[in-house]
Amino acid sequence: MEEFVPKRENLAQGKQRLRSSYRRKLPGKLAGISEKWAQISKEGWREELARPIHNVCHDLAGTGKTFGFSQVTKYARIVETQLTRIFDDDGAPTQSHLENLGVAIENLLVNGPIGDSEPDLSDSRTGEGRVVEEPASGQGQTGATHVQAARRIQPLSFLPIYIVEDDVALADHIVMELALRGYDGRAVYDLADLEPQIRQSGVTPGAIVMDVIFPDATTGGIDIINKFRRHEILKYPVVFISANGSFPTRLNIVRAGADAFFVKPFDISELIEKLESLVGETNPDPLRVLVVDDDEMFTNLICVVLEDAGLHAMGINDPTLTIDSVFEFNPDLVILDMYMPEVNGMELAQILRQHESCSDMPLLFLSAETNPEIQAAALNIGVDDFLVKPIDHTYLVSAVANRAHRARALGAKIYRDSLTQLLVHDEIKKQLDAQLSAAERHATELSYAILDLDDFKQVNDTHGHLTGDQVIKALVSLLRRSFRRSDILGRYGGDEFVVIMPNTRLADAATVLDRVRNDFSKVPHRSEIDDGQFFATISVGISNFPKYTEPEELQSSADQALYAAKKSGRNKVNLA
Ligand code: GH3
Ligand code: MG
Q1: What is the arithmetic mean of pLDDT over 32-52?
Q2: Fold of 156-279
Q3: How far, in Å, CA of 479 to CA of 458, rounded?
Q4: d(Cα 115, Cα 52) in Å, to the nearest integer?
Q5: Edge-first strand listing for the sheet containing 496-502
Q6: For ligand 1, atom 17, which residue shows the shortest CA distance?
Q7: Which region, left, alpha or beta, applies to residue 462 given φ > 0 means left and ψ of -120 to 50 means alpha?
Q8: What is the full DSSP assignment across 73-99?
Q9: 422 lines ligand 1 (CB under 6 A)
Q10: How far is the CA of 459 from the centre of ligand 1 (A)?
């Protein structure tokens, strides 16, 4: 094993050996993907064929760049993302999903084996590579183990969160609250134990919550983080906690590159909310972009480029389907081609603007048209910008992402509730109408749930309105983690919430909501009145399309089911 230690002298040799070994194994892995994909293309979609492709791509995405195959990482990640989305959506993939997937797999197979010209395991571009060189290598760890650790790329939320705090009760309390929310919190009471524990775990932490003052070191917490930074081994968020909120402490914390700071005593649920925003899925709700272009290859390419940048793209080649697609996909931005058969981009833009729900939607033209007069005419009918083909991919991503992001932020102010950031009553109604007509068109089921906090008035009366707000936030945080990306969450007002679940059978909706009900009943809340711990519950009514076909029927039947759940003792899920 000793020869694996990447000593400075033989580092280059070691890299070369690893790279050669990777290169030898790569064709076999790609062949496996190609074989499974050929079978899917021939016999149709089967999840048991797609899962192995997903797993191999996940592995390749995490390793390729480290071993000098950036293209493997790039394209394997696209395939992985697209498959994850298909699995998340739970149904059979659409034709356009499969086409996009085909393009991505082909890119992986064709471009993957072309290695980078200057492979460098310690290249600063490869976060993984840096792990290989972390100073711990001199302390009995072999380089091989480090490579192993680097390969294990996981969703951040499954990674351990270390609570480094000599106040045992506080550390344990935070760990318990994290555990209740599904996180792997680990208490470290002694500063000296942190590094060995991280090394022993073999995985990069998801985050560190760091106390500042320790018994024999008044700035111990800050010092160790600064040391980690000097050694460049800090790749995860750090949240400081301290009883000392003085200006010098704050300044030192800022200089240590803290992601957040809480002065004791603080509200633990606020700390956890902050951690969730730092370590949770990087993008639980990606920006959605609809691409309308009659050129199928080009549409696929644009979608792949956008997906690669972390956006969620859907392409259609028949412009007459644009309005339906907008209602179903609910994009943050639409990209239109200028010249298409049947209806041209200018006409389409005007049709979109006629619909109330699309009147503020950012529209971009992406066209080979270079005539400034025609471009100006497009801007005059309310198109936001005119991008010219061929377009630089980085520029396209920036132009699209920035506009989509701003449009969503503005929408959030208008259409979302300020306490929970969930859709408000009117918006939920619009969404229900759109999703119901989509379910009718595709002959799929749709479930609709109304959730209501039990005896919430009493919670407010006993523990205060602010505590009540915290209970609402805790419920919303759980809801966000419990539903699929395609499900739509809203706050109907007060203590009442709704979930629209497209493509979901009543029995499946009931299973999920019963789990949510059960999980929520175990979340502890803290009373602002006496600092005591208490629990709250919800009741749920669920109705379903096609049993009920009109939005009003779905609403009133779910309402009645909820009422019956309340009557029969609360903390229940009841079906209409
Ligand atoms: P039930 O189990 O029958 O639902 O009883 P309940 O007490 O929850 O029902 P009720 O509809 O009588 O009370 C709802 C309470 O929710 C009353 C209102 O003060 C409280 N509430 C509504 N919105 C908010 C909010 O944003 N924050 C807080 N803290 N309380 C709210
Ligand atoms: Mg209530």
Answers
A1: 91
A2: Rossmann fold (3.40.50)
A3: 22
A4: 24
A5: 488-493, 496-502, 446-453, 538-545, 573-575
A6: 457
A7: alpha
A8: HHHHHHHHHHHHHHHHH-SPPPHHHHH
A9: no
A10: 8
Determine the average pLDDT of the residues in 144-163: 46
Ligand 1 pocket: which of 424, 460, 462, 528 to mutate (most atoms within 8 A of CB): 460
**Ligand 1 atom 6, closest CA:** 455
Decide: 419 in ligand 1 pocket, CB within 6 A.
Answer: yes
Indicate the top mutation candidate among 418, 457, 492, 568 to test ligand 1's pocket, ranked by most ligand atoms within 8 A of CB.
Answer: 457
Give, using CA atoms, the residue closest to atom 19 of ligand 1: 457
Bond prior to 265 in cis (omega within 30° of 0) = yes
Say whether pLDDT at 115 is over 90: no
Q: Which ligand 1 atom sits closest to the C-alpha of 459?
A: 7
The residue with greater pLDDT, 478 or 13, is 478
Q: How far is CA 260 from CA 86, 163, 301, 305, 505, in A?
A: 35, 14, 39, 33, 42
List CB-based neighbours of ion ligand 2 within 5 Å. Answer: 452-453, 456, 495
Domain 288-415 is of which CATH architecture? 3-Layer(aba) Sandwich (3.40)
Domain boundaries, the chain: 27-111, 156-279, 288-415, 425-575
Domain 27-111 fold: Four Helix Bundle (Hemerythrin (Met), subunit A) (1.20.120)
- At 510, the pLDDT band (50, 70, 90 cuts) reads very high
Which residue's structure tokens are 């195959």? 69
Distance from C-alpha of 301 to C-alpha of 453, rounded to nearest angstrom: 46
Ligand 1 lined by 460 (C-beta under 6 Å): yes
